[in-house]
Amino acid sequence: MNQIGIGRIAIAAATLGLGLAACLPATVPAQAQQAATAARPAADRLTDVSSQERVRRAPRRVPVYPRDDSDNVIPRYNPGPNAVRDCTASYVQEHRPSGTVIVPRMNCFWRRG
């Protein structure tokens, strides 16, 4: 296995370890908090924000309306009569993790004919 693969495994293991450590319950602070809560009067515990129940609301529904695709023509705008599609093609370099590669690229637009 090469150096990049070992580094990725080490990063994944560290991320997993931190995630598990954050999810594990902390028993000592929780016991101290319970002892402090028991020492307070009952009136203070009722006004505490963390002890109040939250009201569960239904998620808001967003209306979605279907698009009118009766013509099935792309582009959806009217480029006008006698429109011509003008395209320019070239090769460009793309920097990828496996190395730099040369790929074809095409840019097109509509112009009046």
What does this structure look like?
It is a single chain. This protein is an alpha+beta fold and 113 residues long. It has three helices and two strands; from the N terminus they run αααββ. The chain starts with a helix and ends with a strand. The mean pLDDT is 75.
Outline the secondary-structure elements.
Blueprint: H1 3-23, H2 27-39, H3 42-47, E1 83-96, E2 99-112
Antiparallel strand pairs: 1-2
Shape field = flat
Distance between the termini: 58 Å
Strand fraction: 15-25%
Q: What value does the average pLDDT take?
A: 75
Protein structure class: alpha+beta
Instruction: List segments where confidence is low: pLDDT < 50 over at least 5 consecutive residues.
Output: none
Q: Number of helical segments?
A: 3
Query: In which order are the strands of the major sheet placed?
Result: 1-2
Instruction: Give helix % range.
Output: 25-40%
Order of helices and strands: HHHEE
> What is the number of strand segments?
2
Rg is 31 Å
Largest sheet, if any? 2 strands, antiparallel
